[in-house]
Amino acid sequence: METADGRQAGAMVAPSLLAADRMHFGRELESVADADYLHVDVMDGHFVPPIAFGAIDVRSVAAASQVPLDVHLMVDNPDECIDQYLDTEARIVTFHWEAATHAHRLVEKTHQAGKLSGVALNPATPPEALRELLRWVDLVLVMTVDPGYGGQGIVEGSRDKVARTSRLCRELGVSPIIEVDGGVKTDNAGTLAAAGASLLVAGSAVFGREDRAAAIHELRLAAQEG
Ligand SMILES: O=C(CO)[C@@H](O)[C@H](O)COP(=O)(O)O
Ligand SMILES: [Co+2]
């Protein structure tokens, strides 16, 4: 189904494993087996205060699940460590614009490794910062919270930022996946999707529910109705 401006209606859903119960991780992975992607938050204790998931964990998840992996690198200087993640089964590897030194080289390396390349923007970074890079990347991750923690409320103005990102892509004639991450719930999935988001990351909205398949289904439905 297409929207009035020619976009595909609806969105894919990527449960964020940050919100999963580590003590029952295998069972948690099984509970989200029908997701479109699994979102893996890599945190280095510098770019963001917490430390979470490394390349070893990405490999373990890839071995335990058939769902493609979407790796979100919240690390200082991804130029120094991206190779470890390119050497995993991840389908998407996304670095932060604010942390990268040679963003174009990161995109090239990611493509050479046969993966989709994403660039993430903090809430305070405008989409216009990506004017050059947009023609090379496959995905733009619009952070809808300040990175570092799950379970936060969505930053005001996020819908508008997604719409501006989407407009800029149209202006440049490119169509990367637009991913939103942070505070995504059924009550905002529709407006985010209508603004142009096509991949919704949801941590607490999925793992905070007993029935994860229903949570994923309801997010997809909300995105479609938006
Ligand atoms: O990258 C991050 C946080 O830095 C996210 O991926 C969170 O893990 C999303 O969790 P919810 O806000 O959906 O609970
Ligand atoms: Co994330």
Automatic annotation (TrEMBL):
Pfam families: Ribul_P_3_epim. Its cofactor is Mn(2+); a divalent metal cation; Zn(2+); Co(2+). The keyword Isomerase applies. Coiled coil: none annotated. Keywords: Carbohydrate metabolism, Isomerase, Metal-binding. SUPFAM superfamilies: Ribulose-phoshate binding barrel. InterPro entries: Aldolase_TIM (IPR013785), Ribul_P_3_epim (IPR026019), Ribul_P_3_epim-like (IPR000056), RibuloseP-bd_barrel (IPR011060). Binds 1 divalent metal cation per subunit. Pathway: Carbohydrate degradation. It is an enzyme of class 5 (isomerase). The active site is at 41 (proton acceptor), 181 (proton donor). GO terms for molecular function: D-ribulose-phosphate 3-epimerase activity. Its EC number is 5.1.3.1. Substrate binds at residues 16, 72, 148-151, 181-183, 203-204. A divalent metal cation binds at residues 39, 41, 72, 181. It catalyses: D-ribulose 5-phosphate = D-xylulose 5-phosphate. PANTHER family: RIBULOSE-5-PHOSPHATE-3-EPIMERASE. Catalyzes the reversible epimerization of D-ribulose 5-phosphate to D-xylulose 5-phosphate. This is Ribulose-phosphate 3-epimerase. It comes from Olsenella absiana.
